[in-house]
């Protein structure tokens, strides 16, 4: 499974909150998940609310990334990485553990005429060394991943990286450890969120 699979099961469409960006997006999650035959849902196939909010923030505040090396953690579709590249980042690296995600990132970067480097694998024992900015959209979706992501983001911030997180009020977001930068009403797929709109906030660490 690779780029051909992504192309076969998605349609290129503007992102609702970030219409400047187009993504190869799927119409329905469960059927696609079954087709992938993987434990992990197809996070790469949809513009999730946290990622949309973070991408909107980056495009509206380009100084946050312009001229800087950016690392997009758990990139999924690459939405946030593409936004960083469009906002003028000098280098953008998208990371994910799913090879299909990185295939989608490559396709979505090309569709938006930007360059995004890709790194496959679990990097959560590190600190995104070399990146000036670390972006993470919708990464607090369960307790186990939160327990690994939070120390990663803390280490990145401790070595001097700017950290921005986009989150649609997921239950495991440790709000006491962050300060809100912006909040958005994000259009989302009904099939994913059981609603047409979710509030999502962009946070930075305290």
Automatic annotation (TrEMBL):
GO biological-process terms attached to the record: methylation
Keyword match Methyltransferase: yes
PANTHER family cross-referenced by the UniProt entry: ELECTRON TRANSFER FLAVOPROTEIN BETA SUBUNIT LYSINE METHYLTRANSFERASE (PTHR43648:SF1)
Domain of life: Bacteria
SUPFAM superfamilies the UniProt entry points to: S-adenosyl-L-methionine-dependent methyltransferases
Sample GO molecular function, one term: protein-lysine N-methyltransferase activity
UniProt key word Mitochondrion: no
Protein name, entry field: Methyltransferase
InterPro entries referenced in this protein's UniProt entry, alphabetically: Ribosomal_L11_MeTrfase_PrmA (IPR050078), SAM-dependent_MTases_sf (IPR029063)
Originating species: Lentzea tibetensis
Keyword vocabulary terms for this entry: Methyltransferase, Transferase
Pfam family of the protein (one): PrmA
């Amino acid at each position: 499974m690779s780029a051909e699979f992504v192309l076969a099961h998605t349609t290129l469409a503007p992102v609702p909150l970030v219409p400047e960006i187009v993504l190869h997006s799927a119409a329905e999650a469960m059927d696609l998940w079954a087709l992938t035959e993987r434990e992990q849902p197809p996070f790469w196939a949809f513009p999730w609310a946290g990622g949309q909010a973070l991408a909107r923030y980056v495009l509206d505040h380009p100084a946050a990334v312009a001229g800087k090396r950016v690392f997009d953690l758990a990139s999924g579709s690459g939405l946030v990485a593409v936004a960083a590249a469009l906002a003028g980042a000098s280098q953008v690296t998208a990371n994910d553990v799913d090879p299909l995600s990185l295939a989608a990132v490559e396709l979505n970067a090309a569709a938006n005429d930007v360059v995004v480097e890709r790194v496959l694998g679990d990097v959560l024992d590190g600190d995104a060394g070399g990146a000036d900015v670390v972006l993470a959209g919708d990464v607090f979706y369960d307790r186990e991943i939160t327990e690994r992501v939070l120390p990663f983001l803390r280490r990145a911030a401790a070595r001097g990286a700017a950290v921005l997180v986009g989150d649609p009020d997921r239950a495991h977001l440790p709000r006491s450890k962050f300060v809100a930068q912006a909040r958005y009403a994000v259009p989302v797929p009904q099939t994913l969120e059981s609603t047409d709109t979710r509030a999502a906030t962009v946070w930075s660490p305290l």
